[in-house]
Design a protein that fits this description.
The structure is a single chain. The chain is an alpha+beta fold and 267 residues long. The protein has one domain: Sortase, Chain: A. 21% of the residues lie in helices and 24% in strands. It contains two helices and eight strands, in the order H-H-E-E-E-E-E-E-E-E. An eight-stranded mixed beta barrel has the order 1-2-3-4-7-8-6-5. The protein starts with 14 loop residues before the first helix and ends with a strand. About 13% of the residues have low confidence.
Length: 267
Amino acid sequence: MVAHGHRPARPVRSPGVRLLWTGAEAAVTLGLVLLLLVVHQLWWTNREAKAGAERQVRSLEREWGQPQTQGEEPSSGGGSTPAGGADDDPAVGGTGGTGGTRAAPQSRRTAAAPRPNWDQAYAILSIPRLGLRAPVAQGVSKPNVLNHGYVGHYPGTAQPGRAGNFALAGHRNTHGEPFRYINRLRRGDTLTVETRSATYTYTVDRSLAQTAPGDGGVIGPVPRSRVVPSAGYDEPGYYITLTTCTPEYTSKYRLVVWGKLSSMRPR
């Protein structure tokens, strides 16, 4: 029986026990920090970038005097996604030339989009199958373009409506992830690119499931892979190219989708 007012002595922990206890506390703290980083990267950056991209689309529509399209929300894609690292850099190395290897027909040439200012959103890419509407900006800088949820236009490639290859990059994971589901596009699907002067419709024609990050041939004026020589085209034309990282949550390879200009409607 313990006498009144006398507290029992605390057990003395051995150095080994203290070391294990300190290590456990550090592991729990580190785990919480990593969890917060994952939440920030996979949820918060998406939320902020998507909201900013949607605002930019509405701003362009107002600027062009076009009524806002109702009921078109980015698709969530459904299903669960694995946890992992963030998409790093969806851009493909090299610019593949200036685009435009033969003169465009007069009707297309007069309505072609003007060259935009650097990092400026100047077009809207719509992909009906994916429920996507995203602003297109000049350049593929991550901090200035891609991380804002925008689709980036590769410098040196053709502009919408011009002969050559209108080549684009977008994140597949995090920061709005506009190109997350482009692997679901199939031949015959349509893409539209709206500018101040016209709306261009491209039809998906081919895809390349995997190539090296430095495969600049896929965004060339006549797009053709230098890594997979059978993938791509042999003749000049009016092309669109979408590029992003693959597999998901990595930046090891690039996924490519190609299309051809099928119609143009002036504003």
